[in-house]
Design a protein that fits this description.
Elements: H1 2-12, E1 16-19, H2 25-36, E2 44-49, H3 60-72, E3 75-78, H4 87-97, E4 101-105, H5 112-122, E5 126-130, E6 137-139
Parallel strand pairs: 1-2, 2-3, 4-5
Antiparallel strand pairs: 5-6
Helix pairs in contact: 2-3, 4-5
InterPro entries: YspA
Protein name: DUF1273 family protein
Organism: Pseudoflavonifractor capillosus ATCC 29799
């Protein structure tokens, strides 16, 4: 993932990254971008938060990690205050709508990530998919 983010910066001129702040890949990618800011000080990181209570039921360690990342982001976009059944989808659409490139870790199975990749296709975005098992990278 780090190599793909560096390639977006160096080869495509990407300067702004958006993270959905979900556990797993979102937070891992955010930490990579934050780490790369020392080498590429012009890049920025935005957190797209689906609702204020996103992390409320997470473990203490996960919440601490979440708030640590959030504090270092250059911009925070809170999509809505309360949780609703579609707030994660709204967050994902926001990220696609505000990006030129989509970097997804996806195994091809139906999921929220799959829905987001399909939405990005519909919007004509450049999509980079990393298979989490084989680590193969495809560009769409």
């Amino acid at each position: 993932m780090r190599d793909q983010i560096v390639a977006l910066i160096e080869n495509e001129g990407v300067t702004h990254f958006i993270t959905g702040m979900a556990l797993g890949v979102d937070m891992y990618a955010a930490e990579i971008v934050l780490d790369l800011k020392s080498k590429y000080p012009h890049i920025t990181l935005e957190s797209a938060i689906p609702c204020e209570t996103q992390a409320i039921k997470w473990s203490v360690a996960s919440r601490e990690r979440y708030y640590n990342i959030a504090a270092k982001c250059d911009k925070e976009t809170m999509l809505q205050r309360e949780y609703t059944s579609d707030c994660m989808d709204k967050r994902n659409r926001y990220m696609v709508d505000h990006a030129d490139y989509i970097l997804a870790v996806w195994n091809g199975c139906p999921s929220g990530t799959g829905n987001t990749v399909r939405y990005a296709h519909k919007k004509g975005k450049s999509i980079i998919v990393i298979n989490p098992v084989s680590l193969d990278v495809t560009r769409e």
